[in-house]
Amino acid sequence: MNRGIITIRNTNSNNIKVYIELSEDGTVWVTKNEIASLFNVYRSYVEANLKSLFKSNELLEKTVKQEEHSTQINDQKCIIEYFNLEVIIALSYRMDSYPCIHFRQWVAKQVILSCKKSSSIIIQLGTTTLN
User: Which tens digit of pLDDT belongs to each residue from 34-54?
Assistant: First the structure.
């Protein structure tokens, strides 16, 4: 499974550099531990916020999560859960670590740059389309 890559690096005190290499299906797939490491938070904090995202139906778990079944060295079966870029972005708006704050700023900057490149942007929310 090509999962893509996402990294957040501090370049100096005021800037961060976000590097994203998308997987074959156009997203990034990461584990809870990788999200915790990316945002410099505890895994339990990631788990609590994921639970809240799914409970509120802000994200539909079946559309943003993949499971991989594997066997460990001792023949014990386990399931590895992967979450996509949509989850990473949503979690960054729920958590307040330094990397989360700067990642949110980077996401906002990317949206603004995207809008500037085209004269209009179409946003579809539910059944409403805004131009």
Answer: 999 999 999 999 999 999 999
